[in-house]
Design a protein that fits this description.
It is built from six helices and two strands. The protein is mainly alpha-helical and 111 residues long.
């Protein structure tokens, strides 16, 4: 069982990972299937160097793992539950987005 401090740390790492659109795209792509860095870079239309930096961040956050595959390395979500969590989070955010009650939201950008 995690302590409150450990739970906060886990959530903060998850938030850090989701704070960048490229890392979100990587996670959503890996949610569908494991992938090799070259294929990910091509699919996301980013340089391999940039992808490598983002994969390192996601590994440090504990969200993806590198699995050796012969002379190559394949990346995948660290746990299949992360895919479900991403789906749940996306659904919740979309539901909240659709249910904005602030009449001035578009003008003020407040909610």
């Amino acid at each position: 069982m995690l302590t409150l401090a450990a739970e906060i740390d886990v959530l903060a790492r998850f938030g850090r990972a989701l704070a960048d659109p490229i890392r979100c795209r990587i996670l959503l792509t890996l949610r569908q299937a494991p992938a090799y860095p070259a294929d990910l870079a091509d699919a996301l239309e980013i340089s391999r160097t940039r992808l490598s930096n983002h994969l390192a961040c996601l590994r440090d956050c504990g969200l993806v793992v590198a699995a050796p595959d012969g002379r190559r390395t394949r990346y995948e979500l660290a746990d299949e539950r992360l895919g479900h969590a991403l789906d749940d989070l996306r659904a919740a955010v979309v539901a909240v987005e659709a249910d904005r009650t602030c009449p001035d939201a578009a003008e003020k950008g407040c909610c």
